[in-house]
Pectate lyase C
Amino acid sequence: MKIKGGSGILCSSNISGIHFSGDGDNNGVLIVADQCGLSIERCIFSNCHIGIRMINESSKGFSEFNVLDKCTFSASCSTGISYERDKGNESFHGTGLSECIFQQQTKDDNSPHVLIGKNCLVYNAPMSIHVFRGLSSSPIIQHDGLPRSNFYGIITVEKHPKNTIDLVSGGVLYIVGSVVCLSENLATTKTVFCSRFQANSDGSVNYIRNPASLSGTFEQTDSVDVIKFNSGESAFIDVSIMSPAGIERKLVFAAVDRDGNGMISDTALSPMKSKLAHDSIISFNKSMLSITRPSSDGRQWIVDISFVASRLQYSMK
């Protein structure tokens, strides 16, 4: 089924309560091309390679404010939704998903649930989804689109604890919101969670990143990469390292200059006294923040990060 035309006109059309089922190899049991203002509610997509394709197809065509609400993508639907650009422009303003469910897909272990295609700009778009995953390794979102793409919403994930999956693979994706996950090993390396976001006309972005609380073990290594900062970011960092002998804890201030070089300063305000110098347990390799085990019996680490600034983010200029 294909719905075509209407770029720039909010049609306010509604599709509701339909089960879209293919023959197993359908590349889009529903195709929406150059359409604006379409609401797709409580539909089911199954037995297909791609459930719904949003396409900017014709010259100057665009797809905006098309929203899937409370739809379900079954286990036999490899990729639920794709954003694609043919001869149209890059805009997928406000086109996304609200309270949709992705069940554990079984057809293709390498297919993401959401695919942002090449040269697509998805922005100011909802992305509130509930994902159920077993042992498959495919990312939840594959981001091959333009670098300023962004969503807003809350993503919930229920997964098998033994496998690691990426929330986002490809380019960095900005999400104004958060993620809730049942069980460990959901990687968010390519995701920037923030409370404010602005895409600038010069191609840059401003944002205020959400606070982060990260933890782990040293296992068979003495050093662990914790998080990569972006140029211009700064943060207060509370780092704790636990061992049978007790806890080593430091409160430091970190900043990354415009060339991507990180710097750390001890605040001397640690809630716990420590004889260790801060640079013996926390350091930067360029913009990658790392922690080091201070002794052979150090086992666990916790790093709490409260971001202060990025590129002019408080003035948002």
Notes: The radius of gyration is 22 Å. The chain has no helices and 31 strands.
